[in-house]
Write a structure and sequence with these properties.
By secondary structure, the protein is of the alpha/beta class. Strands 9, 12, 13, 14, 15, 16 and 17 form a seven-stranded mixed β-sheet that branches. It has a four-stranded antiparallel β-sheet with strand order 8-7-18-20. Helix 18 links the parallel strand 28 and strand 29.
Length: about 950
């Protein structure tokens, strides 16, 4: 028979095509078109743009209630001011993996996207924009300002959502929500009124985190703690009591001998904030401190303003820290405020809202707090009241939005009582109705909820939901949804009014986002609508541990209060994305890569895989760009494997020689699928990806395809080919949640036949776990080890892979190697493979399990080197056996270990002993 060959160019490379028309149903033209349909290399950007548009056009992300089981995720709404960063990448990759997998499991998957209005950050952006135009928000007025803010939001607020599309986020974009939409804002106002009527919202003066630049209170979550270099100033406070004072200013006391002993006339206080001494209302000492016993009941004098303040006693003061004396400034320190309440001290606030000193300071009035700090030091020095200055490091709070140093400040604010709502929210978690993943966060959650404090819900801003409180000219107020309702309440209460003014403050952004799982489904305005009844409670929430209390706990409270049930069932808590040195990524350190640049370089699939490979739930991700490179290598591996399979020619006349290999991969696939399913059930997404990665890279590409691929320039049989194509289709399915773009690209190749428009990988059904042949899996693992040992022998003896070898085996394990002969011969290039009963002289030997293998090499064996190799193996086995025997002789282990664990150890012992006996025999044979 004459083979005809032709040379063609495929994707820039010359390829020689052999075909024989009478036995192969391929014309040169059809084969050319077949090979040309898939390029040599994968183009991520082209595939990403094409398939994302396709998914959108065919509404694969769209979800409406139907008869299927719902699976719902609501996105943690990013700020409208935000742009994509590495934390978003991790969080949204995890959500997309979960939603895509649910969709492929036949569930009605609904992922609701949206953005948060971000009161402080957005207002700061708009104020800065107005400043560039020579305007202020006050000059513009509230109504016009809100119009400009909404214009800014419409222009810039959707950037981050568009960036998420580049990642492949399969959100139902038709459901996109914004926390200041009219219906959602109305829900916030209704919630405020509801809680006020229950007596859970009140107005009062409390200590808050004050942002002097934003001129608003901020939540604890919006305060970023940073370690900064400061100065510690030691300031002298004179003692006001003059009893027994001598002319030279020293007070006299009797010593043990009855003589007068001089006593100091001042106390030294160490502080980092000398500009606040004018607000001091006491000096505090520990009543047990012997150094200051004589000062009990005395008074001290504030430097520069010469004001007397009491010296109070409290064990709160640590005697061995600093000088053991504490200046108490209730208006400007939270701990001092609590101490002041305990001792009924007055509160003197010397700071204006913008951080400048007011008239109560008496000196340096109008100066900024930090300018005042610089100026007060020479004043203290001149007065002889500055003892020394030391360098000092401490944690300082900064506003997350403006980066201004936070000022503890007493302020009239609106508060929400939390204790009643916290109790059921804690029960949901402790009883396991809501699972925190990982569960190490339960204790943190419990501590927060058992020590909950009232929530400051007011913000001194215009961008947000305006608090529904109305004031008359006397400052009397009512809470009402509209001005008309407020007027009615004033009349009912017999309160006079001519003009009512609405509260200027808006509610905290969290006061709208805590309603998110309900409000996105219109559960307040229409509490019985089809969406809320179908999608709520949602299934999984993916978020960061740092907002476990500020957002997650409050959503649980809101769910219970307004729906009488939990808002979600599982909370997957991601770690912080750090660089490979363990540092938190930040712009200031310059260690945070641009996610869009990463996707441009490695493809969205490569970055998704790179992020997930090293991100176990709740643990920080040590990000290294090499992970993305690994992800890119992975999809290239899949692409090249596909090209290999597609390049095969099929001969219908050939019988299937690969039944064992096919049966093995079927079982191996199901075994891995069971492992993947188990990992997903426990939210071990990183481990699920790794199991998928190993199945595809190692088992499918490195072993299965090598087992069944035809010899060079030879065709493959139809049965093996079709089964391999079916395997590849299942591989694409399990890969899709992790790598959606390349899987969809390959899914539509003609290799799989003609697909309809709706027949897409994104909605393909996940494979089912089938019967697993454990014996076959075990014996193929041994077969793989045999192949590896043959290759190692070739490498150590410098024998070419092309040179065929002979192999003999003594099967002590009872494995019938004739079943695996074809695989071993093919992968190991073995010419003859015999089952023998005697050791083979003049051969290199190795062991796999209990079985002895021999490769006759005639003069190629170096007895000394072979003996050295066998002795090393013997030494290792002796050490291994010793460790196993130690475990088995441990009474505690034998008492507490499960029977199956003990059985494994006994088997290890028996195997090691059997191998040692064989090694001993081989060494003896070699010596002879």
């Amino acid at each position: 028979m004459i083979n005809i060959s032709s040379w063609i160019i495929v994707n820039g490379s010359w390829l020689r095509i052999y075909y024989e028309p009478s036995t192969i149903n391929y014309s040169l033209k059809s084969l050319f078109l077949h090979l040309m349909s898939i390029s040599k290399t994968y183009s991520p950007k082209e595939a990403e743009d094409k398939w994302y548009s396709y998914w959108l056009a065919h509404k694969f992300f769209r979800s409406v209630p139907d008869e299927r089981e719902p699976y719902t995720i609501v996105i943690p709404p990013p700020n409208v001011t935000g742009v994509l960063h590495m934390g978003h990448m991790l969080n949204n990759t995890i959500q997309d993996v979960l939603i895509r997998r649910a969709r492929m499991k036949g569930k009605n998957a609904c992922w609701v996207p949206g953005t948060d209005h971000a009161s402080i950050a957005t207002e700061a952006k708009v104020v800065a924009m107005l400043k560039d135009e020579g305007l202020t928000k006050e000059a513009l007025g509230r109504e016009k300002f809100l119009e400009r803010a909404m214009e800014w939001k419409e222009k810039y607020g959707g950037i981050i959502l568009e960036q998420l599309k580049k990642l492949g986020a399969s959100c139902d974009w038709d459901r996109t929500k914004f926390t200041m939409e009219p219906d959602m804002s109305e829900a916030v106002i209704d919630t405020f009124i509801h809680l006020y009527k229950k007596g859970w919202i009140y107005r009062g003066v409390r200590m808050v985190n004050w942002d002097p630049q934003g001129k608003t209170a901020v939540s604890d979550e919006e305060v970023i703690r940073k370690e900064v270099n400061q100065k510690l100033y030691y300031i002298r406070y004179a003692i006001a009591d003059g009893a027994g004072r001598t002319a030279d200013g020293e007070s006299q006391d009797m010593d043990d001998a009855g003589h007068h002993a001089p006593r100091a006339t001042h106390l030294t206080i160490a502080t980092t904030r000398p500009e606040t001494i004018m607000a001091d209302t006491a000096i505090c000492i520990n009543p047990n401190d012997e150094r200051y016993k004589h000062l009990h009941g005395k008074k001290a004098i504030i430097p520069l303003i010469n004001k007397e303040i009491p010296i109070i006693l409290d064990e709160y003061v640590t005697m061995d820290f600093g000088t053991g004396c504490l200046k108490v400034t209730p208006a400007h320190d939270l701990n001092d405020y609590e101490l002041g309440l305990k001792h009924h001290l007055p509160v003197i606030d010397i700071l204006n809202d913008d951080g400048t000193l007011n008239e109560k300071a008496q000196i340096l009035v109008g100066e900024d707090r930090f300018a005042a700090r610089k100026k007060i030091i020479p004043m203290l020095e001149e007065a002889g009241q500055l003892e020394k200055i030391e360098d000092y490091k401490s944690q300082i709070g900064f506003s997350e939005r403006t980066d201004a140093v936070i000022e503890p400040k007493l302020s009239m604010q609106w508060f929400c009582k939390m204790d009643e709502m916290a109790k059921p929210a804690l029960d949901y978690v402790l009883k396991g109705d809501i699972k925190l993943i990982p569960d190490k966060f339960i204790n943190t959650y419990r501590y927060w909820m058992e020590n909950v404090k009232d929530w400051c819900i007011s913000r001194q801003l215009w961008w947000g939901q305006q608090i529904p409180a109305w004031y008359n000219e006397k400052g009397q107020w009512v809470v009402a949804k509209t001005k008309k309702e407020a007027e009615e309440q004033f009349r009912i209460s017999n309160l006079e009014f001519s003009v009512l003014t609405q509260e200027e403050d808006v509610v905290d952004t969290w006061f709208s986002s805590w309603l998110w799982p309900i409000s996105v489904f219109d559960g307040f305005k229409d509490p019985n609508n089809a969406d809320i009844n179908y999608y709520y409670p949602t299934n999984d929430l993916v978020t960061a541990p740092e907002i476990l209390f500020f957002w997650v706990a409050r959503m649980i409270m809101a769910g219970h209060e307004f729906r009488g049930e939990l808002p979600f069932r599982n909370v997957y808590l991601t770690g912080i994305v750090r660089d490979k040195l363990g540092r938190k990524m930040s712009k200031s350190l310059g260690n945070s890569p641009d996610p869009l640049d990463l996707m441009e370089k490695y493809g969205a699939d490569g970055v998704r895989v790179g992020m997930l490979l090293s991100s176990p739930a709740g643990n920080d991700l040590m990000f290294d760009e090499k992970h993305c490179e690994q992800g890119r290598n992975f999809f290239n591996k899949v692409w090249n494997a596909f090209r290999l399979v597609k390049g095969w020619q099929v001969d219908d006349s050939l019988k299937n020689p690969n039944e064992v290999s096919i049966a093995w991969f079927k079982s191996r696939f199901s075994q891995s699928l069971a492992e993947i399913e188990d990992n997903f059930a426990q939210y071990r997404l990183s481990e699920a990806l790794m199991a998928t990665y190993k199945l595809v890279w190692d088992d499918f590409c490195a072993w299965y395809l090598e087992m069944i691929k035809p010899a060079y320039e030879h065709p493959i049989d139809r049965e093996t080919y079709e089964q391999t194509v079916a395997f590849f289709e299942d591989v694409l399915k399990i890969l899709h949640p992790f790598m959606p773009f390349i899987t969809e690209e390959l899914w539509h190749d003609e290799l799989f036949g003609q697909r309809t428009e709706a027949d897409c990988c994104i909605v393909a059904q996940m494979p089912e776990i089938e019967q697993i042949n454990a014996q076959l899996l075990s014996e193929i693992e041994i077969t793989k080890q045999v192949t590896t040992e043959i290759r190692n022998t070739r490498n150590s003896k410098q024998i070419s892979p092309k040179e065929a070898l002979n192999l003999s085996v003594i099967s002590n394990s009872g494995i019938n190697y004739s079943k695996y002969k074809a695989i071993i011969c093919k992968l190991g290039n073995i010419a003859e493979f015999d089952m023998v009963n005697e050791k083979v002289s003049g051969a290199v030997s190795f062991m796999v399990s209990k079985d002895e293998f021999y490769i006759p090499l005639a003069n190629n064996i170096d007895p000394v080197a072979e003996s050295e190799r066998l002795n090393k193996e013997k030494e290792y086995l002796n050490g291994f056996l010793k460790s196993v025997e130690a475990k088995l002789s441990n009474e505690r282990f034998m008492k507490n270990a499960k029977p199956e664990v003990i059985e494994i150890e006994l088997k290890k012992k028996a195997d090691a002993e059997a191998k040692l006996k064989i090694l001993h025999d081989n060494l003896t044979s070699l010596a002879n």
